[in-house]
Amino acid sequence: MEEGEAIMIDKGAYSFSTCWNIKRHTGGRELIEEIRALGFRRVELNYNITQELLKTIEPMIERGDIGVSSVHNVFPFVNDKAYDTDSVMLGYDDEGMRRRSVDLLLQSMEYAHRYGAEAVVVHPGEVPFESNIDAELKQLWQAYGPQSPQYRALWERMMERRSALAPRYVQRIAESLEEVCEEAARRGWNAAVGIETRSRCYQIPTLREAAEICGRLQGAPVHLWLDTGHAMMMQRMGLYDAEAELGEIKRFIYGVHIHETLGLSDHWCPYVHSGEERFFDPYLEAIACAKVKVYELKAACLPEDIHKSHRLLTGRLQALESAAG
To answer: Where is the Xylose isomerase-like TIM barrel domain (predicted)?
Structure first.
């Protein structure tokens, strides 16, 4: 550790997701205090926050001890795999299940409004497969590489189904989001809806799918939530070229989840754990333009890693701003 690296640094407008330490705590106050000790004034309350944890978190929000940048749908935690973060959600064929997904997103938006949050982060849906073909692909990627015959054969099979079915699910997701936004406007809620780039190749949206959905809903508060680590992962797997497409879709970005991917393992501290500059630099411009910037890191990231990563990231962003003029 460099001298002084573990000293708490005020992180300003940057926010920090509770996914980092939620498994270490049974009390909400202790969970938030640990994040505050890192120098963060705001948090993203992730989808594993329970009603029980909120009993001690909500008084902290009300007193102004902590701000809430965003909440992550479904919020608070719902113990139902049909509506978890890896499900068809807003794209369900079954109207009752789709309606339930719309209602759960409205519930998340109500909490966001209550807490003064700027956004609700949403995993909008996926193209359903009988098994987790993404996990199979990642195993082949690790074992043989993305150009291997084994990987390519399964990838082509996955893409054939994804390409055939994705337009129908994108359409239904857009319709569901339109319903949500109309109801939220009727209730006077103004939090943005950020549809997040995902970590499994059959999940929606790709960057282009996000642009299509946002374009269809122009005038509604639906935006892209760029997850940098997931975008890196999908580029490595071959779903899209994030670095090439960022310039085209940048105007749709409202928020970012900031983390780095090592191979196909995500939620690491940018620059620190990879030791590389070139992997993360292409995402700096997108981070700079995002209204809400949230670190989304795994428990293995130590406080000194987080402080160092923030120093390196903000230093590069300042250099980018200076170069621009």
So the answer is: 33-262
Q: Is 48 left (phi over 0), alpha (psi -120 to 50) or beta?
A: alpha
**Measured distance CA(296)–CA(246) in Å, rounded:** 20
Average pLDDT value for the chain: 96
Q: Is the pTM of this model over 0.90?
A: yes
Question: Which helix (H) or strand (E) is 110 found in, with range?
Answer: helix 95-115
> Which tokens in the block code for residue 260?
């780095």
Residue 4 is predicted with a pLDDT of: 42
Q: Give the ranges where 197-302 is alpha helix by DSSP (H).
A: 207-216, 228-237, 242-249, 284-289
For residue 93, give Cα distances in angstroms to 54, 101, 134, 169.
Answer: 33, 12, 22, 9
Burial 223-249 (b: 16+ CB within 10 A, else e): bbbbbbbbbbbbbbbbbbebeebbeeb
Q: What is the arithmetic mean of pLDDT over 275-290? A: 93
The DSSP letter of residue 57 is: H
Is pLDDT of 151 > 50? Answer: yes
As separate numbers, helices (DSSP H) first and strands (DSSP E) second, the chain gives 10, 12
Q: Quick check: 195 and 224 in contact, CB under 8 A?
A: yes
pLDDT, position 120: 98
Instruction: Delimit the domains of the chain by residue range.
Output: 15-125+168-324
- Please determine, for residue 5, whether its predicted confidence score (pLDDT) is greater than 60: no
DSSP string, 123-190: --EE---SS-HHHHHHHHHHHH-TTSHHHHHHHHHHHHHHHHHHHHHHHHHHHHHHHHHHHHHHHT--
Say yes or no to pLDDT of 8 above 80: no
- Kind plus residue range of the DSSP H or E element containing 277: none
The position carrying tokens 């899209």 is: 240
Quote the CA–CA distance of 173 and 181 in Å, as a whole number: 12
In the structure encoding, which two tokens stand for residue 98, read together?
């789709």
